[in-house]
RNA sequence: GCCGAGGUAGCUCAGUGGUAGAGCGCGGCCCUGAAAAGGCCGGCGUGGGGGGUCCGAUUCCCUCCCUCGGCA
């Protein structure tokens, strides 16, 4: 019998953290975070990490594992997460992967094509070529070396065009060739994916509440402290941090940054939902206004026990 | 009460006698080493209400309502 891994996902501010806590207690799980920003130390308020109280009474893995000045990406995450998941299973517990990063989830479940890390130098060179020789140049080049990938990538999507070219130049084979070869956890484990869902207006109200709370908890001081030091490119893209930088630089007033953060969080939540909707393996858990995290966890427990869905 | 300005998308506003746009917002989508990132698509509308002129009114005229300034 294959061991089971449970994913609890959902848009930001949908209540994953608390729900996961109660669910973990019920199913004898340890939590493995599935989040690209909570890995960073000292970004606590900014990323709404689970409280110390929660973390003290239940193991939460992959939170606070990277210093703020280090770059981080999907493959780092995958390496660390797979290791943790195996450890948890070895202890006889259930890994409960909790987070909102759709790509991170997919990379765990479905795999990644390995051995082609980013090459910043090459990227810079390609980027500059694109600047000098016009926007269509890089895309044209991609069409030559990898027509299949070019078909999938929009001509304006510089980031993906450059990545595809990068892979081609480093490995000598097109990225579309590698993308077909991925093996993930789904081969070896039973996977259940639960996604928290609530009416959009309620979710947005929740987001607004959370952002206001961040301000009263001291997000400004935290951001100020972080921006004083050397900070990696990846960490600097956290919602809240980039907006507050604008506030410190005098670009926005206090109420404008607040709004900006709320809005960018909404857009982020919308993108997350698009990602999850596409994944047909997901089992949706609708959350209503009056539901407490404990009750939602109870409902999920019922779903998990009720029928063993194979993935 | 009088004078002036104005009521067009969720918001701020353009424009035209042939049933309307822009920015922001909002919605949908894509995604394999920056993913809290990056990219694509979509106008979502009782043109304040009512009447009139006209083949045809959001546009011109009348009237009422509302908002904002000034004078009382």
Rounded radius of gyration (Å)? 21 Å
Count of spatially separate domains: 2
Unreliable stretches = none
Q: Strand count, sense and closure of the main sheet?
A: 6 strands, parallel
Describe the structure.
With 311 residues, the protein is an alpha/beta fold. The chain folds into two domains: 4-112 and 183-305, Rossmann fold (3-Layer(aba) Sandwich); 120-180, Histone, subunit A (Orthogonal Bundle). Helices cover 55% and strands 10% of the residues. It contains 15 helices and six strands. It has helices spanning 16-27, 52-57, 74-90, 102-110, 120-133, 135-145, 147-152, 158-171, 175-179, 200-217, 219-227, 233-236, 241-248, 254-278, 293-306; strands spanning 4-9, 29-33, 60-61, 94-99, 190-197, 282-286. Helix 1 (16-27) crosses helix 15 (293-306), helix 5 packs across helix 8 (158-171) and helix 13 (241-248) runs antiparallel to helix 14. The radius of gyration is 21 Å and the shape is globular. The model has no long low-confidence stretch (mean pLDDT 92). It binds one RNA strand of 72 nucleotides through helix 3, helix 4, helix 8, helix 9 and helix 12.
Distinctive features:
single chain; 311 residues; alpha/beta; Rossmann fold; globular; RNA-binding
Brief digest:
By secondary structure, this protein is an alpha/beta fold. The protein is built from 15 helices and six strands.
Q: What order do the helices and strands come in, and which of them pair?
A:
Blueprint: E1 4-9, H1 16-27, E2 29-33, H2 52-57, E3 60-61, H3 74-90, E4 94-99, H4 102-110, H5 120-133, H6 135-145, H7 147-152, H8 158-171, H9 175-179, E5 190-197, H10 200-217, H11 219-227, H12 233-236, H13 241-248, H14 254-278, E6 282-286, H15 293-306
Parallel strand pairs: 1-4, 1-5, 2-3, 2-4, 5-6
Helix pairs in contact: 1-15, 3-4, 5-6, 5-8, 6-8, 10-14, 11-13, 13-14
This protein binds one RNA strand of 72 nucleotides through α3, α4, α8, α9 and α12.
């Amino acid at each position: 019998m294959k061991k089971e891994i449970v994913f609890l996902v959902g848009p930001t501010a949908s209540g994953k953290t608390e729900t996961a806590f109660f669910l973990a207690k019920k199913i004898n799980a340890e939590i493995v975070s599935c989040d690209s920003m909570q890995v960073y130390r000292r970004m606590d308020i900014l990323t709404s990490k689970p409280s110390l109280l929660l973390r003290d009474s239940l193991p939460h893995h992959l939170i606070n594992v990277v210093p703020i000045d280090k770059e981080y990406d999907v493959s780092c995450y995958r390496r660390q997460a797979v290791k943790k998941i195996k450890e948890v299973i070895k202890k006889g517990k259930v890994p409960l992967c909790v987070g909102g990063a759709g790509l991170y989830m997919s990379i765990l479940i479905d795999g990644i094509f390995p051995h082609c890390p980013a090459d910043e130098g090459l990227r810079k060179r390609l980027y500059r070529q694109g600047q000098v020789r016009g926007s269509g140049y890089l895309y044209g080049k991609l069409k030559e070396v990898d027509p299949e990938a070019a078909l999938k990538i929009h001509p304006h999507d510089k980031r993906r065009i450059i990545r595809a070219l990068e892979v081609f130049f480093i490995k000598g084979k097109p990225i579309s060739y590698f993308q077909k070869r991925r093996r993930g956890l789904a081969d070896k484990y039973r996977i259940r994916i639960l996604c928290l869902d609530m009416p959009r207006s309620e979710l947005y109200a929740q987001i607004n509440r959370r952002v206001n709370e961040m301000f009263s908890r001291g997000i400004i001081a935290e951001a100020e402290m972080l921006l004083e030091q050397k900070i990696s490119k990846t960490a600097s893209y956290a919602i809240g941090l980039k907006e507050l930088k604008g506030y410190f630089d005098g670009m926005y007033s206090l109420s404008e940054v607040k709004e900006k953060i709320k809005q960018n969080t909404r857009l982020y939540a919308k993108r997350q939902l698009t990602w999850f909707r596409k994944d047909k393996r997901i089992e949706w858990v609708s959350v209503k206004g009056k539901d407490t995290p404990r009750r939602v966890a109870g409902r999920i427990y019922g779903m998990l026990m009720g029928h063993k869905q194979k993935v």
